[in-house]
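Hello Y.,

Per our agreement to keep a running log of every chain we model this quarter, I'm adding this entry. I've kept the format consistent with earlier entries: sequence first, then predicted structure.
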Amino acid sequence: MGRAKFLFGPVAGRGGIVGLIGYFFRRSFLNVRQNLLINALAVVTITLSFLIVSLFLLLYVNLEGAGELWSEKVQVTVYYDRELNGNEFSALKNVIMTLEGTGTVGYVSQDAALKRFRARLKGQEALLDGVPPEVLPASLEIRLKPAYRTSEAVEAYVSRLKKIPAIGEVQYGEEWVRRLTLFMNFMRFAGALLGGFIALAVLFIISNTIKITIYSRREEVELLELVGATRFFIKMPFLIEGMLQGFLGALLALVILAAVSWAFFNHAGTFLLFNPQEAGLLFIPMEYCAAIIAAGILAGFIGSLTSLHRFVNQS
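Predicted structure for the entry above:
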């Protein structure tokens, strides 16, 4: 009782739990000011670590976005050797829209198909002079919802589509869809594997960095133990300090990456063969940025906790 009063009475007496929490934060900020250089080095190390994580996430997000753009090209085409009138198309469209996974249904007439063919020839349109539209089939173009663009989902969709009366020849580029699905699955697996490895490496680096900051003040920890301070009382300022270091490191990493990305997106078109903005390259979404900040705080907390385990008396 006497030790508890010695440690918490003066602090807790000035506002209870709120006063105690305020004391821990004041102590943490005072520790940072008194050990500014070593804390700055810790923040720089954490910043570099999270810069690697953020860069990896930026690449992953844009690769995922590119995969989504490619998947938008997945469509099922139904060919007809004659034109469909308005009533026939409307009836078919209504039935097709009831199929699970259908996104949009469009009709391409024989004239429109010939115009597309001419546009693809690019300067050699004269080859089609005298060719009547009737040589090309009319078609229904069915675009699927994002969740139904894998090879298995498309095959299942096509099998249901063929059961509808008045459906003609169906094509959907089976091999292309299969390769796209394999690429997307491989990218997600590799991203999860590499991302997990980077996260563990970053946590290890942060833990050892914070361990150095705590080791430099081991005499302070030993003194607190000698006067009877509890483990909680000793650890809390260090834990808050670690979370602050993690927060600042993650925030600085995002600021640096944002500045570099802005410069790249706005000036890369002068020395690359494509414009990054027109190519659809994006910065990390805000929810991912918030997750990185939260991960920085959590990494600082875990790093401090594991480091304190060695220095604080466990008895």
